[in-house]
Amino acid sequence: MIGLLGFIGLWALARWRGWGERWLLLLAAGWWAILMVVHLPSQVENPMARVVGGDLPGWTVFGLLAAVVLGYRELLRALRRRKAPEPAAPLAPSGTFREAELDRYARHIILREIGGPGQKRLKGAKVLVVGAGGLGSPVLLYLAAAGVGTIGVIDHDVVEGSNLQRQVIHTDGRIGMPKVFSAEVAMRALNPFIEVRPYHRKLTEEIAVDLVRDYDLVLDGTDDFDTRYLVNRACVAAGVPLISGAITQWEGQISLFDPAKGGPCYACVFPVRPAPGLVPTCAEAGVAAPLPGVIGSMMAMEAVKWVTGAGETLAGRLMIHDALYMETRVIGVKKRADCEVCGGRH
Questions:
Q1: CA atoms of 270 and 210, how far apart (whole Å)
Q2: To which H or E segment does residue 308 belong?
């Protein structure tokens, strides 16, 4: 039936052109209105009615059913927003701003969802970033630019020429320098009003929990599973939320894990470590240069939202982004009662 094919064609065109949902709904409503008009009794001789097929009662029912489905979807969205846990804003506004800082953060302060209190929370926040590589680069730069007061960064590696294709916090002139100190140089140059704590060492079981306890939030952008599971165990033990990101080739994923608030931990979602070689690192499989910037910026955005209490975070949800085909999907994730890391914690 040509009429139904018209809706399919509009959907395909919207996906191809990148039109948003609003425009797609408007075009679909317009096409439905045309179908209704050509089937009016006064248009009984209209040849277009035979071409598109159907009849007035049929298209009327189709439109009503579509309205019911869309209305039900919006109701579910509203209920989901209402039932979703409030974004954590555990940090009390603190600190005063110099005039230069007020000018620097003016675009944040005029945002209704952040404002002055939210910017004060950012100034009083202490955030630890594990890894100063591909994901850590945009995370650190944007946390510094956003005015997070204390930023810790731990990484045992040094800057290499092969890093510079994607690790934008480093420069050619700092090849051979420990990544944490290279990152410190860039962050202080970007924002002199923040405190940077570089830890040039490998994160180990012996220091992980004590280090994490010094911070309000942890962001993990490492590319090896041993470290990811270690960071998760430390965060669960310390009761500190974790924003975890991962990338490979053209794809990336992010979630916020906060079992202390009833959500899952990293091990709930990924209980089994992949076999060696099954999930290659960026060095082994390659990675598109802008992808760490995309995923890392989203991680920094999640951190800003968590600290300020703005919007809805990815707590209880996993976002998967396919940059090659520019598709993003979000799936729900749940706490597992039998999780070996957080199963007995509430």
A1: 24
A2: helix 291-308
Which of 4-18, 52-66, 87-101, 274-288 has the weakest average pLDDT?
4-18
Q: Which two tokens stand for residue 234?
A: 């430390």
Q: Residue 7: pLDDT above 70?
A: no
Q: Which two tokens stand for residue 106?
A: 């003016």
Give the distance, in angstroms, between the CA of residue 245 and the centroid of all CA atoms in the same chain: 8
What is the number of alpha carbons within 13 Å of residue 196 lying toward its C-beta? 24
| Six token digits for residue 192 | 């002199």
What is the spatial order of strands in the sheet that 126-130 belongs to? 195-199, 150-154, 126-130, 217-220, 242-248, 251-257, 317-322, 327-332
Which of 148, 91, 98 lies closest to 122, judged by CA?
148
Q: Which residue type sits at 37?
A: V
Q: With 90 as the cut, is the pLDDT of residue 103 above it?
A: yes
Non-local (6+) Cβ contacts of 338 within 8 A are: none
Kindly indicate the confidence band of residue 294, based on its pLDDT and cuts at 50, 70 and 90.
very high
Q: 244 pairs with which residues across the strands? A: 220, 255
Nearest partner of 143 among 155, 154, 127, 159, judged by Cα: 127
Please compute, for residue 264, the number of CA atoms within 13 A of its CA located in the half-sphere on the CB side. 20
